[in-house]
Design brief:
The protein has about 325 residues and is of the alpha/beta class. The protein has helices at about 15-30, 45-50, 85-90, 110-115, 135-150, 170-175, 175-185, 195-205, 230-235, 260-270, 280-285, 290-300, 305-320; strands spanning about 5-10, 35-40, 60, 95-100, 105, 125, 165, 210, 240-245. It has a domain at about 5-215: Spore Coat Polysaccharide Biosynthesis Protein SpsA, Chain A (Alpha-Beta Complex). The termini are far apart.
Length: about 325
């Protein structure tokens, strides 16, 4: 595949639609001469639903039984670790790949990103940046990272794991996959707040090349930018990749900012406009028959967003909450 840009993503059944939308965004933002090949780490994807998008340039890897012995949370299932399998899963002739979380939308051709100079490191990623009033909520996890992993608090950047440029040849040579998994297994569970991301940063501390913030723009942080850096304001004005971290687009609420509005427009113009785009976490906490009934009612109201949001407000009132 001379000249082909290799992209990897990981998903389970619940994230089939976000995966499909991410793939569609990559294809729609590609230059005419760009050729992508996708490597899907599959832990239960609904392939028939995904392939409504007409994707043909995909290699599948069944990883449903991998990493099940590692710690997980409701928010982070075992699929969160699958990105680290890429050096061992892909054939040796593929020496570089971009890994993307599937809760992202790509708004710019990825050729330049793919050819980033890694400066001798095996991975490039975007440094952790929290903006606005969320610094207090999320900053504590960043500040506690050196202490949790018995590392010097010397200002070494901490990186998001949502976008990784991987030099697979170097990672294979260093046994990076085994080293990261060993970090997970040898770290007390209470110290693994961000699971795979913490393990990545602890294992490769000081050996990750930073990428610009525009490649990890998080809609949750899009308010109160007037006092932020020039880089932050420019990134949020014209993002290359939008990452729906921490707060997913919610059909019962609708768009909460301009970036979410772009998402809803993109979703509604896609082949998956009659599918719930992101799983509603609140449903997973209900008995299955109740959750199935509510999900069916949500899907029936998808063509009428205002009715759906009114329904969401009613459910929130019944639950005694401000939002579903």
């Amino acid at each position: 595949m001379q000249g082909t840009i290799h992209i990897a993503l990981s998903a389970n059944r619940d994230f089939t639609v976000p995966l499909a939308l991410c793939l569609r965004s990559i294809m729609q933002s590609a230059h005419e001469e760009t050729r992508y090949h996708f490597h899907i780490l599959d832990s239960g994807v609904d392939r028939s639903l995904l392939l409504r998008g007409g994707f043909t340039n995909i290699t599948w890897y069944n990883v449903a039984d991998k990493m099940r012995d590692l710690p997980v949370t409701e928010r982070f299932p075992s699929a969160t670790y699958h990105r680290f399998l890429l050096p061992t899963l892909l054939p040796s002739e593929i020496t570089r790949i971009i890994f993307l979380d599937c809760d992202t939308l790509v708004r710019r051709d990825l050729t330049q990103l793919y050819h980033t100079d890694l400066r001798g490191n095996s991975i490039a990623a975007v440094p952790w940046v929290v903006l606005g009033h969320f610094r207090e909520e999320y900053g504590q996890h960043l500040q506690s990272f050196p202490r949790r992993f018995h590392l010097p608090d010397d200002g070494t950047p901490y990186f998001y794991a949502s976008l990784l440029i991987m030099d697979l040849a170097t990672m294979r040579g260093y046994g990076t996959t085994a080293r990261i998994i060993e970090t997970v297994r040898n770290t007390p569970r209470k110290n693994l707040i961000w699971l795979d991301q913490d393990a990545l940063n602890a294992t490769l501390r000081g050996q990750i090349t930073p990428l610009p913030l525009e490649y990890n723009v998080i809609p949750l942080f899009s308010e109160q930018l007037e006092n932020e850096s020039d880089e932050a304001r420019a990134a949020y004005a014209s993002p290359a990749i939008v990452h729906f971290a921490a707060m997913k687009p919610n059909i019962l609420i609708g768009p909460r900012n301009a970036l979410e509005e772009d998402f809803f427009n993109f979703w509604q113009a896609s082949p998956w406009a009659r599918c719930i785009p992101y799983p509603l976490i609140s449903l997973s906490r209900l008995p299955r028959p109740v959750a199935a009934l509510l999900k069916a009612s949500f899907k029936a109201l998808l063509p009428w967003p205002r009715l759906l949001r009114a329904y969401g407000r009613l459910l929130a009132m019944l639950q005694g909450k401000k939002s579903p």
